Amino acid sequence: MSSRSSESDRDPSFRFDYDPATIRFGAGSVDDLEAELEALDLERALVVCGSTVGATSTVIEPVKSGLGDRLAGVFDETSAAKRLSTALAGRDRLEAEDADAIVSVGGGSSLDVATVISVLAANGYGPAAAGRELAETGTLPVPVEGLVPVVAVPTTLAGADLSTVAGIAADPDEGPIDEPVSGSVSHPDLMPAAAVYDPELVATTPDSVLAGSAMNGFDKGIETLYAANATPVTDATARHGLEKLEDGLRAFGDGDRDVATFETLLEGIVLVQYGISRPDETTLSIVHAFGHGLTAGYDVQQGAAHGIVVPHVFEYLFEREDVDARSGMLANALGVGDAADRGAAVVEAVAEIRDGLDLPAQLREVDGPQPEEFAAVAEVILDDAFMANAPPGLEPSVAEIEGILEAAW
């Protein structure tokens, strides 16, 4: 396996435009939510979360206490499906509570719904208009004024918090559409106003949820290093973030659950996502395209899908002499830079981290596509927008993508 690490094929010129959220970090940082809202000149916040978070006192009570008199109410109806109808109901609740801020608590799904609530509050779309727009365009219009600021309080490790994109989906019973539809909203102004990372809150999340989300977050750092639009800025944050995650995930896999472990994991998550979601572009790449292809229409958690395919994607990339997948930089970030074959060492290191998280290692272990469906899934993967960020020189065919799926089976 090639360990090619030269970056001579990459254009050294770049433009980096990034307006991140204010970040609060540390144990007990949710105690500062009221102060953060005051700093943002916001008076009343609607908490948006899922029913599990809303019913878990060790999570929701510190958030409510931290908001103090600025708590307007709790809307705990989000789900992994990220339904348009849920966002519309949340918008109605936001207006009923006369709230001028949203505090999203939970994983990426809750943040996505919170973001769409903000968009709906600004554009004023009703159910029919919103459903029709999503079906016809795959998105919703984002006005330049009227967006409700969102403060993200993540309880997972997916790294969806410093993002300007939110996914949304609808079924025929949710509006004037003929079949299920999914899409996204994207705009530079959709970056959260603040993100609060509290390791004590993350520690309350079940291990099974954290494991899948951690693999997703970990892959954000990996993809950022070899993405076609990587910059020296994102190289620095992603590499150091991967170093932190490598330490934290191995400790987590060994059973360590102290605050220090979660602090290390969260430090890594903050760093790997810093700068990856920028105006009109992202550094997410081929692995995330595989994740979309393997979860669209299948009951497969995205982190689990990533964990299964990452080693095989790497083997494919590193064997290509015409592709700059930056195995040297990845090897250094993962602590295997001294290996004789750095590509093989990266594959082994990633597989070890996945296995330490007790995630599935083969497609046959999950409720995903069967081999006879691989050709169709390969087409979906190749059509995914994230493939535009694949490593320089990579132009995969359907057959090659099928080969990766077959190796992962």
From TrEMBL:
Q: Where is the Alcohol dehydrogenase iron-type/glycerol dehydrogenase GldA domain?
A: 20-199
UniProt keywords, alphabetically? Oxidoreductase
In terms of InterPro entries, this protein maps to: ADH_Fe/GldA, ADH_Fe_C, Alcohol_dehydrogenase_Fe
User: Where in this chain does the record put each Fe-containing alcohol dehydrogenase-like C-terminal domain?
Assistant: 213-409
Tell me the GO molecular function terms. alcohol dehydrogenase (NAD+) activity; metal ion binding
Mind telling me which residue stretches traverse the membrane in this protein?
none
Pfam families linked to this entry = ADH_Fe_C (PF25137), Fe-ADH (PF00465)
Protein name, entry field: Iron-containing alcohol dehydrogenase
Output the lineage of the source organism: Archaea, Methanobacteriati, Methanobacteriota, Stenosarchaea group, Halobacteria
